[in-house]
């Protein structure tokens, strides 16, 4: 399963879900679903989100399966 630090990063940058959604071209509901781990973004969307935060993709998304 893929986990993420999106909400933490978004709040630190004082960014709303709506603003992040606008910047990456999706709906606010998509951002909410990703933050709640109910939806895994496409690779392109994951890179776009990382770009908005100004970090590498591995800072935003990670694998959480207990094996790492």
SSE layout and pairing:
Elements: E1 2-4, H1 6-12, H2 17-24, H3 28-35, H4 43-53, H5 57-60, E2 61-63
Antiparallel strand pairs: 1-2
What does this structure look like?
This protein has a two-stranded antiparallel ribbon with strand order 1-2. The termini are close together. It is mostly helical and 68 residues long. The longest helix is centred in the C-terminal third of the chain and has 11 residues, at 43-53. The chain is globular and about 30 Å long. It is built from five helices and two strands, in the order βαααααβ. Helix 2 (17-24) packs across helix 3 (28-35).
Helix content: 55-70%
Oligomer: single chain
Question: What gyration radius follows from the Cα positions, in whole Å?
Answer: 11 Å
Could you tell me the mean pLDDT? 94
The low-confidence runs, each spanning 5 or more residues with pLDDT under 50, are none
Strand content: 5-15%
Number of helices, counting only DSSP H or I runs of 4 residues or more: 5
Strand arrangement, major sheet: 1-2
Number of strands: 2
Shape: globular
Tell me the structural class. Answer: mainly alpha
Distance between the termini: 12 Å
Order of helices and strands: EHHHHHE
Major sheet characteristics: 2 strands, antiparallel
């Amino acid at each position: 399963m893929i986990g993420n630090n999106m909400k933490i990063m978004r709040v630190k940058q004082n960014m709303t879900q709506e603003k992040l959604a606008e910047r990456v071209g999706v709906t606010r509901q998509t951002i909410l679903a990703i933050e709640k781990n109910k939806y895994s973004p496409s690779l392109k969307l994951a890179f776009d989100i990382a770009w908005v935060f100004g970090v590498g993709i591995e800072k935003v998304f990670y694998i959480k399966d207990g094996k790492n």
